[in-house]
Amino acid sequence: MIYYLIFFILGIFFGSFLNVIIYRFPKMKDIFLGRSYCPKCKKTIPFYDLVPLFSYLMLGGKCRFCSKPISIQYPIIELSTGFLFALAYYISGFSLSLLFYLPIFMLLVLIFIYDLKHLEIPEVFSWLFLALAILAGLLTNIYSIDSFLLGGLVGGGILGILVGISDERWMGSGDIKIGLGFGFLLGYPSALLFLFLSFIIGAVFGVVTILVKKGKLKSQIPFAPFLIVSAIITLLFGQRLIDYYLNFAIM
Predict the structure, then answer these.
(1) pTM of the entire predicted model
(2) Taking 60 as the threshold, does the pLDDT of residue 202 lie above it?
């Protein structure tokens, strides 16, 4: 358990860094430099108020100076990154794969939140994810080269066809890179399960949204979060789900 705790704590600190990128990236200014400040009163935040999770709880979710509420996004991202870092260790242990999973999971947090907030995926995020996914698939020897290539063909090919047919009305080109990357990372046949789950989760979300709004689904829905959630489910339970399906089909 001690290793899970270590990776969780490491993750929440990296999550705090991701919060900075998410806030500053759209402005394209001082992304990695400059002191953090309250977006409401513009006062510089002292270092003792920048401890992930702890500072938010101690301040009661409010700025020390102006008492305006701090977005709940900050502790959620820190917690999520902490859990993802612990998950990376659970999946791969101390191995070469872990060196890829940690930065991949950090990119997935950025992609998830950015697509959710802005309905687009910055090219630098999607290309970095795709590059890391390819390297992870090739260098960690998790499965055969055939499984690697077929997984990429399924993950990126099917989404590419849908993007082409819909002229990017259903999803964007960034989603193709995400699907392609997960296809390489998961291999075949897990890539099929990953896509199936993403469409199911997306459909359920769409139906719930329509029921809540009591009308038609008019607004655009970001698809990358569904891809990311389904990929994590596949990483955790993919083989068991596939085995269960095969056993059920044979009966």
Answers:
(1) 0.89
(2) yes
